[in-house]
Amino acid sequence: MNNPTEHPLVRAHLDAVDRYTAPLSAGRRRELLADLCEHVEGELAERDPVDEDAVRQVLERLGSPRQIADAALAEEGRTRPEPETDRRTTLTLVFAVLPMPLLLIPVIGPGLALVAAIVAAVRVTKAAQWTRREKTRATLLLLSPILATPLAAVVVASSTGLSVIGVLVACAVGFCPALVAAYLLARSAARLRTAALIVN
What is the pTM of this model? Predict the structure, then answer.
């Protein structure tokens, strides 16, 4: 094996550590992963042959991704993010995408859409599974319709006049960032859940 760190078991182990240490700075995570790679390469260099059993033994001695992450996070007074239940995550994501269909309700639709976006933002900030950075980014995207929708309305009104269709277009454009937030949150939650499955 030319590069032991490319072995699927090693890759999965390192990916799980990377995911669990998400609260750390990118530089600190890179340093930790580089140290782990160096350790694995050194251990496997002393083994002949380097088969799957040898890789498993090295990884077991290294410690589980949870243990490694917990130790690294504890050094900086932080804790590891834990996945929420599928039900809680799904409910948060439903509130994040709900604004778009709510816009189709005459008169009260935009108000309901804004309420749904605010509820989604509150749920995101209270969830333990997303990092502070992910929460900040998602909250900004979820609440951006407050500014984006009026700006889109001004642009639409200046070019075509503000008709019913124009209002719907402005609202749709304004609430698009909420869909982006839902996608990013769903992807992050799926990665965390996968990492949890790898080590359980």
Answer: 0.58
